[in-house]
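User: Design a sequence. Structure:
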């Protein structure tokens, strides 16, 4: 399932290539035919992301709400003015992905190709097209209903509206549930998934099993700040990279597992390198049994409410 940074990238791409354009909307698959008819021929005014959901606001006060879920993905194509990724989504068989440049933009654009597979909804402008397949949710709602849907979600670090940090601190500290479980609840923190959950907790040296009521306010504030930072990097880079240069074998600074290496993220971390190899991109996620990049201890993994949790028993010990 795409984490929040991918959905924000989607919203940005929709705004860039469709914002202000009058769109033809169809449902080649047929399942969204009634909804498509309500939107067809209207102007996309704005595209916004909240957590893992995207909201497309149209000129006649209707909204398309899309939640990609485990299998949903968007494909794009168009002429030379229609730039961006060609595919953003989460095909379960290969994991979260974003493909750049494959087939877009095209110097010989003659309109969208024939739909391939079960296309739930197709959006077409003068310059390009977008196809949606396999979403968990795709519906037409009113702006008021969109507000209700968004209010059911927790604050989104990438939106970071006034008061959002305080609201997150309040929500996570009011429950005795462990913080690792809480970070996966979209009504506590919207947009965070398994990767950002594991990585943010490691970067701050927080025990995943720590009760929310035992989390100090300043720790919760730091958790919000660092999550916002690394998710913003994901929006910029189009992939999740959470390691600092000094913690990569190819980087400069303290070697992996060297005594005296820091156990917590530096107060002013260097920006991640978007070209970091896959094997250097994360601290703990999918690294069970491998040495911690900071202390050399084997990274642990356990099932927690049906999802795999990764952590360092030393750096994140209670």
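Assistant: Done.
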């Amino acid at each position: 399932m795409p984490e929040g940074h991918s959905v924000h990238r989607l919203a940005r791409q929709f705004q860039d290539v469709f914002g202000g354009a009058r769109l033809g909307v169809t449902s080649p698959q047929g399942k969204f035919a009634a909804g498509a008819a309500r939107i067809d021929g209207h102007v996309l005014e704005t595209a916004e992301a909240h957590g893992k959901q995207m909201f497309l606001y149209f000129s006649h006060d209707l909204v398309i709400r899309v939640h990609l879920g485990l299998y949903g993905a968007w494909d794009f194509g168009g002429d030379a003015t229609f730039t961006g990724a060609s595919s953003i989504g989460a095909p379960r068989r290969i994991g979260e992905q974003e493909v750049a440049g494959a087939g877009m933009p095209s110097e010989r654009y003659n309109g969208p190709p024939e739909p391939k597979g079960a296309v739930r909804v197709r959006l077409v402008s003068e310059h390009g097209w977008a196809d949606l397949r396999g979403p968990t949710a795709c519906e037409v709602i009113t702006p008021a209903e969109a507000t209700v849907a968004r209010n059911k979600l927790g604050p989104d670090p990438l939106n970071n509206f006034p008061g959002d940090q305080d609201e997150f601190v309040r929500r996570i500290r009011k429950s005795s549930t462990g913080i690792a479980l809480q970070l996966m609840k979209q009504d506590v923190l919207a947009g965070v998934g398994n990767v950002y959950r594991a990585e943010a907790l490691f970067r701050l040296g927080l025990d995943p099993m720590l009760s929310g009521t035992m989390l100090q306010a300043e720790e919760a504030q730091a958790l919000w700040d660092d999550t916002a930072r690394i998710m913003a990097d994901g929006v910029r880079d189009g992939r999740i990279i959470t390691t600092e240069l000094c913690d990569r074998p190819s980087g400069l600074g303290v070697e992996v597992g060297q005594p005296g290496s820091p156990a917590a993220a530096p107060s002013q971390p260097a920006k991640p390198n978007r070209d970091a190899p896959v094997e250097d991109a994360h601290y703990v996620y999918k690294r069970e049994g491998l040495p911690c990049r900071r202390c050399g201890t084997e990274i642990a993994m356990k099932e927690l409410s049906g999802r795999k949790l990764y952590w360092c028993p030393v750096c994140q010990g209670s």
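Confidence is low (pLDDT under 50) at residues 90-97, 252-270. The longest strand covers residues 44-50.
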